[in-house]
Write a structure and sequence with these properties.
single chain, alpha/beta, Rossmann fold, two-stranded parallel sheet, elongated
């Protein structure tokens, strides 16, 4: 596993697993399929779709020194959608 192989070199390997991201593209795709934002959001335990800015903050945190102990971790940023 790459995470274990490079950990001693202070290289962190982390998997980032996002759910849907609230972007204009998602809203256009939903509309094309006859869905609303609210209908899609109901499939998520948190009942909302994560905005791109919020997703970016999680990614920035993962790259920060505060997340240094995370090695070989799968980070589920799906609002609980992927948990089930």
């Amino acid at each position: 596993m790459a995470a274990l192989e490079y950990a001693a070199d202070n290289i962190r390997v982390t998997a980032f697993a996002p759910g849907a991201v609230d972007t204009p593209m998602l809203r256009r795709a939903a509309e094309a399929f006859g869905l609303t934002y609210e209908q899609i959001a109901q499939d998520y335990p948190i009942k909302r779709i994560i905005p791109a800015e919020e997703m970016a903050r999680v990614m920035m945190w993962l790259g920060s020194a505060d997340a240094a102990p995370l090695v070989g971790t799968d980070v589920d940023v799906s609002g609980g959608y992927l948990t089930g």
